[in-house]
Amino acid sequence: MKNIILTIIFITFSNSTVFGQENSIVEILDENAFEIQETNPKIEFNKSDKLDSIFENVRIFGFGEATHGTKEFFDLKIKFFKYLVKNQGVKNFAIEASFGNCIEIDNFIKGKDADPRKLIRKMGYWIWNNEEVLSLIEWMKKYNIGKKKSEQLNFYGVDIMDATNSAKLMFDLVKKNNIKNNEGYLNTLVHYQSRKKSENLKKEELKKHLEIMFELKQYIIKTNIQSKKLYLGIQNSLIQYINFRLDFNQENRDKGMSENVSQIINTSENNSKVFVWTHNFHVKKNKITYTNDFSMGHFLKEKYGEKYYSIGFDFATGNFYAINPKKNKIEKYTIKKPLKNTSSELFSKSNLRIFFFDFNSISKNKLMNEFLNTKIKYRGIGSTYSPKMVEKEKLLNAYDGIIFVNKTNESTYLRK
């Protein structure tokens, strides 16, 4: 009991110490942070020695977002992606969406004619159905024009929560090639062409299907089929999905996402780099606060060390889209004041309206190091919203850097 009381006193004292010196912390930020004057992704960053020194040894760039419905978060990620493509040799883009649902977008940016709006809707998540993501995809297509295959950008989905399109593509491959044990594979794959069907399967059925899908994977490995690398990726996404259904929890999802990012690294050139676009929850280096499960970023940091760089996003006030859980409907929300005694409130006092700061360099300052090592609250809003969605942790444990936006606007939702 005595130890618990001492711990509470220590945490309370640490917080009061930090917030008692907030003016000094803000001064350090003003002097050391990378100021972002314009969020418009069409206005690209100038070549920056400061950014290059931070990113030069990184291979996996994890860019989060504090909500799934904020325009500035998307625009800034696009700005940084463009910079990293042009100055750090990034060629691979990975997003929080399923592998099979992103294949057509990859084909589109490499020259295939299609309606990108329809392709975005096929990704399966309303959170990406906006003008901001559309502008990113169209820029990637333009960038790839005239470039040889090794210089082109790639678009990957790394989530594991849906395998419907993967099942349809594999079903067509098996049927077209009249693969041995054709009937067994087709009868299994038909269950996964609908999420409703696959979610109703019992564990014994899932285990049996998993064995059959591993068998099909071995066939693909041994056979010289066209687009072999692609179909192995499709088959892996099916296997991951079935495993996820067998043990349905957040950590398995994030571990699967980390494995898919690693796969991009492993199957590309030795100097390949990946830009990962997900929520803060997934890119952070420790645990997802709400579920106490290890995150994708944790597994990547554990495996790649300093070659993985995690950037969280924070904001003070503004608008964003999220699902109202009571109505199960997408709505626009507005936060008018930053929460008291949060990083959001402290950062909002900076003279810089939008900024990025790297923890490694700024934490050399004793006061900043103390701040980053003190448990602090900040908003962590996902695809749904509740005022209670607030995280509390040491920022240094969670991220390698933060991008802060003082006032935000909702993403530009694409209507059908």
Describe the structure.
This protein has 416 residues and is α/β, with parallel strands linked by helices. The protein contains 19 helices and 13 strands. The strands form 3 sheets. Strands 1, 2, 3, 4, 5, 8, 9, 10 and 13 form a 9-stranded mixed beta sheet that branches. A hairpin with a 4-residue loop joins strand 8 and strand 9.
**Can you give the helix content as a percent range?**
40-55%
Structural class: alpha/beta
Low-pLDDT stretches? 4-14
The total strand number stands at: 13
**Roughly how many Å apart are the termini?**
59 Å
* Strand percentage: 15-25%
Radius of gyration, CA atoms, in whole angstroms: 22 Å
Please write out the topology:
Layout: H1 2-20, H2 22-32, E1 34-35, H3 49-55, E2 60-63, H4 71-87, E3 92-98, H5 103-109, H6 116-122, H7 131-144, E4 154-159, H8 164-177, H9 182-189, H10 195-199, H11 203-222, H12 228-246, H13 250-267, E5 274-277, H14 280-283, E6 287-288, E7 293-294, H15 296-304, E8 308-324, E9 329-335, H16 343-347, E10 354-358, H17 359-362, H18 366-372, E11 375-379, E12 390-394, H19 395-398, E13 401-408
Parallel strand pairs: 2-5, 2-8, 3-4, 3-5, 8-13
Antiparallel strand pairs: 1-10, 6-7, 8-9, 10-13, 11-12
